[in-house]
Amino acid sequence: MQITGSELFVKALQQEQVEVLFAYPGGQVIDLFHALYGVTHIKVILPRHEQGLIHAADGYARSTGKVGVCLVTSGPGATNLVTGIATANYDSVPLVCFTGQVPTDLIGNDAFQEVDIVGITRSICKWAVTVRRREDLAFVIKKAFYIARSGKPGVVVVDLPKDIQQAFGSDLYLEHIQVPSYRPNTGVHIGQIKKALEALHSAKKPLFLLGGGVNISRANQEMTHLAQKTGIPVVTTIMGKGAIPTSHPLYVGNLGIHGSFAANMAVSNCDVLCSIGVRFNDRITGKSSEFAKQATIIHIDIDPASISRNIAVDIPIVSDAKNAISVLLEKVKPLDTNNWRRQIADWKQLHPLNTGGEHSNVTPQGIIQSINTMFNNAVITTDVGQNQLWATQFLEITSHKKLFTSGGLGTMGYGLPSAIGAKLGCPEKDVITICGDGGIQMNIQELATAIVYELPIIICILNNGYLGNVRQWQEMFFERRYSSTCLQRRKSCPSICSLPHKGCPEYVPDFIKLAESYGAVGIRVQHIKEIQPAFITAKSTKKRPTVIEFIIRREENVLPIVTPGQPLTSMIIKECETKC
Predict the structure, then answer these.
(1) pLDDT tens digits, residue range 97-122?
(2) What is the predicted pLDDT for the residue at 361?
């Protein structure tokens, strides 16, 4: 039977069991939207901006484990996806992004809304392709989904010229596919596993370092059992948080530039470091030549290119995290780690995580601890900046509570739209996003999306009137020169100002009035006693979002912080080390 390329596109989505499509129409995809019209088993979500659209698809994919799917038009529609493509690909999120394109005979002629989106995105995705022949369409779409979800998950971009959408061809869609040039390795090399076991069994101070790969492979239960069986303490990256429950007695904390004192000290003093699903980027290593200097390093990762790229390792194992953890769990022996665990407990007691501040103040720690207490079945997303770092420090993550954040690219504007995607993917869960007053404004238009789809997400804005993370660095390392980081600054302000004071201009916008103008509930919290009632109101609100603006201390800092260019042991622990 002969059908159009647009009709085959819809059939392909059906065969790939796509239930939600995040899509924004335009001239070069109007045929695809025509084919989607009236289709009941694919829910088409219309966000308010293409960047919000792809972040929502990202949140949907992370929350469900399915491939997130996008559809946008050519030109600006396609280029508006670029940040979201890089965001998802850095964090190994499976997305298939369909972009419209001008007809094939116009490609290269600078036609209206023509861009080379394949050339633009090739370096920030797993695969990018323009479909040039109608007879290739089914194979390309099948290959796109296969590549996105297999091996190390990631983003695939499929560019669809308008004439390919309109052309008639076969209605056949492949059930299975073989791609000879793409064969990701998921097996485990038993010889390397034996070397890893020998190192672990001889260790006096072993440590697990867990990254996002553990969460991506859904190996949380197996990893928890492995830690319990061995008695080996666990530290995580930001992306690895939740690999085992944060309440588990073997969990130490996050490591890195803003890692906990105990986690950074444990990595710096361990004798065997078994790292799983970690990229060893500069945010976690500090001075790379000093990272885990005393340790034999085992590195398990599905991506062979990640092994020894940033940190030279002693025992490389290329494998899917879940497969490797399962083999280790079967073969490993219990270890005597009592003395080592006591040392780590002493470090935790010496410098516990604490934002400080007066008891009556609204603090990030107090806000997040209220979330921990009041929400047991939830997805929490964050934006990027201090809000993200406080969330990763203080959030309790369990098998029923998940944390999604932009870890690799650090994308402001991610929090709100990703929460929308997560709520669409997991409607039975409470969904909360933690944002700063800067990041929330980058995609705040997606409040309209939450309203029209009746999504009762909870939006927490930590408002300190600054781009807080950069301001903190300016305070600590750039002589308090607050250059372009004050969001209350106006033309009439002094040219040089490094101290917030009572005479500062009123903040713009008024987030409560803005929330209410969209149809959301708006609550401003200025005192600690108001935190819990605000969450009670938000939790009981149905079919529309709630915006809670928390007014926090303007110069609140994220501590500890590793001094730039120094090893993980070189930490600023207390405010007085920079302000006294």
Answers:
(1) 999 999 999 999 999 999 999 999 99
(2) 87
- Both structure tokens of 171: 């209605």
Give, rounded to a whole angstrom, the gap between the first and last alpha carbons of the chain. 78
Alpha carbons 100 and 97: distance in angstroms, whole number: 10
Is the pTM higher than 0.90? yes
Helices and strands counted in the chain (H then E):
23, 22
Judge contact between 144 and 127, C-beta under 8 A.
yes
The 10s digit of each residue's pLDDT in 436-482 is 999 999 999 999 999 999 999 999 999 999 999 999 999 999 999 99
Cα dihedral 121, 125, 127, 133, rounded to 10, equals -40
Please, which residues bridge with residue 474 across strands? none
pLDDT digits over 221-267, tens only?
999 999 999 999 999 999 999 999 999 999 999 999 999 999 999 99
Q: Are 554 and 500 in contact (CB under 8 A)?
A: yes
What are the angstrom distances between the C-alpha of 186 and each of 232, 301, 454, 557? 25, 9, 41, 42
CA 408, 409, 414, 418 torsion-angle sign: negative
- Region for 110 from its dihedrals, namely left if φ exceeds 0, alpha if ψ lies in -120 to 50, beta otherwise: left
Tell me the average pLDDT of the chain: 95
Residues 6+ apart with CB under 8 A from 176: none
Summarize the confidence of residues 361-378 as an average pLDDT.
97
For tokens 């903190």, name the residue. Answer: 472
User: What order of strands is seen across the sheet that includes strand 458-463?
Assistant: 401-404, 378-382, 430-436, 458-463, 546-551, 521-525
pLDDT of 339-367, one tens digit each?
999 999 999 999 999 865 555 689 999 99
ω into 161 cis (within 30 of 0): no
Q: Quote the tokens at residue 463.
A: 């408002």
Gyration radius (Cα) of the chain, Å: 25
**Angle at alpha carbon of residue 310, lines to 389 and 573, rounded to 5°:** 35
Which is it for strands 571-572 and 561-562: parallel, antiparallel or unpaired? antiparallel
The residue among 331, 305, 328, 326 whose CA lies nearest residue 316 is 305
pLDDT at 580: 43
For the record, the structure tokens of 499 come out as 């101290």
Kindly state the greatest CA–CA separation across the chain.
78
Q: Give pLDDT, residue 540.
A: 97
The span from the CA of 548 to the CA of 567, in Å, is 38
For residues 231 and 261, the answer to whether their CB atoms sit within 8 Å is: no
Strand partners, 466: 486
* Residue listed under structure tokens 């998921």: 186
> In angstroms, rounded to a whole number, what is the distance separating the alpha carbons of residues 422 and 404?
9
Tokens representing 288 are 């790379």
